[in-house]
Amino acid sequence: MALTGIQIFKHLPKTNCGDCGVPTCLAFAMSLAAGKAELAKCPHVSAEGKAALTEASAPPIRTVEIGPHQDAFKVGGETVLFRHEKTFVNKPGLAVQITDTQSEAEVAGRLARFTELSYTRVGMQLKGELIAIRSTTGDRDRFMRLVAQAKDVPGARLILITEDPELLAAGAAELKGARPLLYAATPRNVEAVGKVAREAGCPVVAKADSLDALAALTEKLNGLGIQDIVLDSGARGLRQAMHDQVHIRRLALLKKMRALGYPTIALPCEMTDDPLKEALYASAFIAKYAGIIVLSDFQGETLFPLLLERLNIYTDPQRPMVAEPKTYSFGAVDERSPLLVTCNFALTHFIVSGEIEASRIPAYLLVVDTEGLSVMTAWAAGKFAGDLVGVAIKKSGFAEQSKSRTVVLPGLAAMISGDLEAEIGEGWKVLIGPREAANITPFLKQIA
């Protein structure tokens, strides 16, 4: 049973020191009860207080790790319904499925695409994280061969899908130390699968055909000593599956229902045979609220949009995404190549660099540290001033490798050109670039 704010307050030091970032201990207690703060932020709480507040300070949705501890993929740990309330914590994992009914070539192709389909976006590497291995026929030898194949795939965390406890035990033994997710414990096999999960130290999926049955199932698993649980409500129609996802999240967060306070798994691969419809279903589950999403296959035209959607949703809306401040080069740059300058707001950097690359004209791009602010906002805040940009150009070493010494400012920052010229001195050519990134290509062709 979750504690109220007043109950939590009784265990706090009551010094109102503000070291937690909140003015008073009572306000901190209320935030803790609402799941909007962490107990670790109070540096003065006693050991007895920490023990008493363990339940209240734990996220209402448990964090579950899949894979070896040193390289585990985390799901759950969420504290809010909507990311603007605070932020979402752990992005949902995308899994590709291989089965014992597929040909060797088909399995090899899916495993290869799992590795190859990786994308760089605003300095971040985007790819799928999990491989789901399904036993459809019950053929132990074939299942174990798939497990052996998948365990050698770099960066893969594994899900073993079968309701046969013996197969799960064999797969878990083969993957000792890799902590695969075992799918699934049901009301029919919960004792046997729970024993396998406990002995192997693996997380397990609880699967039932209603939320009431699911809550009863997790309580049985808890009684068997299993705490790392992922929920499957059993729904295979989009409407009912989305209903269950939302209600599980609301019951866990708003009603503090611990029996449903776990991350969920969704299987669009079982909902349709149409790859595009499957991707559409997956996009809905990324938004609300699956912790793991199992796809029948990874294809670039569907995986990439899903990765971008996930990136957009699972970033902190209160913190701007930033690119690394440094000099980037595009094409076969030489001593005549110009140096374009921009801010380190990630979206601006991504768009500008894309336009430079598309122009096929060799050029440098200096990203100045503006603390994640856009060009105009950074200029207004004094973080994209002529003297600061000039210092960044000097530190970049561009002067030593360029004869043209041509610097191109964003059109929106034309007002800093005079200060920049004064900072970098004579012998430099400061040009005013276009106001819109779409015009970078014709501009570069004009000055080339």
Task: Set down the secondary structure blueprint.
Layout (H helix, E strand, L loop, with lengths): L4 H5 L15 H9 L13 H6 L1 H4 L6 E3 L6 E3 L17 E7 L4 H13 L1 E4 L2 E4 L2 E5 L5 H12 L5 E5 L3 H10 L6 E5 L4 H11 L3 E4 L3 H13 L5 E4 L5 H16 L11 E2 L8 H13 L4 E4 L4 H14 L13 E4 L8 E5 L2 H14 L3 E6 L6 H6 L5 H11 L1 H4 L4 E4 L7 H8 L4 E4 L7 H8 L1
Parallel strand pairs: 3-6, 3-12, 6-7, 7-8, 8-9, 9-10, 11-12, 14-15, 14-16, 16-17
Antiparallel strand pairs: 1-2, 4-5, 13-15
Helix pairs in contact: 6-7, 7-8, 11-12, 13-18, 15-17
Key terms for this structure?
Rossmann fold; alpha/beta; five-stranded mixed sheet; 17 strands; 18 helices; single chain; 3-methyladenine DNA Glycosylase II, Chain A, domain 3; TIM Barrel
Q: How does this structure look, described?
A:
With 448 residues, the chain is of the alpha/beta class. The chain folds into three domains: 53 residues, Electron transport complex subunit B, putative Fe-S cluster (3-methyladenine DNA Glycosylase II, Chain A, domain 3, Orthogonal Bundle); 250 residues, Dihydropteroate synthase-like (TIM Barrel, Alpha-Beta Barrel), CATH 3.20.20.20; 121 residues, Rossmann fold (3-Layer(aba) Sandwich), CATH 3.40.50. It is built from 18 helices and 17 strands. The strands form four sheets. Strands 10-9-8-7-6-3-12-11 form an eight-stranded parallel beta sheet. A five-stranded mixed beta sheet has the order 13-15-14-16-17, with helices on both faces. β11, α11 and β12 form a beta-alpha-beta unit. α6 packs parallel to α7. The longest helix is centred in the middle third of the chain and has 16 residues. The mean pLDDT is 93.
